[in-house]
Amino acid sequence: MLASPSQLEMQATWAPSDGELVESLLGRPLPSLQLACTTGGELDLARLAIEPVVVFVHPGTETSRESSRDPDGLLGSGCTLQSRLFREHVASFAGRRFNVVGVSARSPEEQRRFCRRERLQFPLLSDGKLELADTIDLPTSLSARGERVYSRLTFIAHEGIIDRVFYPVPIPRRNAQDVLGWLDKQGTVL
Fold first, then answer.
1. In terms of pTM, does the model score above 0.90?
2. Alpha-carbon span 90 to 94, nearest angstrom
């Protein structure tokens, strides 16, 4: 039986509410996915999440700007600003025994250039096929170029299980502080 045009339109535009998305992810195990890593080779997301980890999922990385055009680090897309703030707070996460990793659909080469330019001390994982999104139903959207990209969200995982989800992330430059604030309120390492 074929769907009517109105049914197809409803299916194409339906998205879970923030609460539904968060609820569907909490307590879910991370899948064993080998993703290209900026530190070389591949990392298995499930193995990485055995230890406490903060995973910030973002649409992309901005590598088209030359760093000389942004000498003070004030310009950049939301993804660039978000990455810079995780960079600035990476020691605070490490002090709480949390690793930090970023995930986007950008190519491994673009991710490596971005890490070098931004001096990131944590790995970025490249998921060009959006396998993680398709496996655990993470939200995606279309970029201005018509490419399917991740929607911005952050989650905390430990022992391979998603413990906390931050979605939506309306202010990327505050995301790292919001996560640290939540961890501080927990009072213990998960």
1. no
2. 6
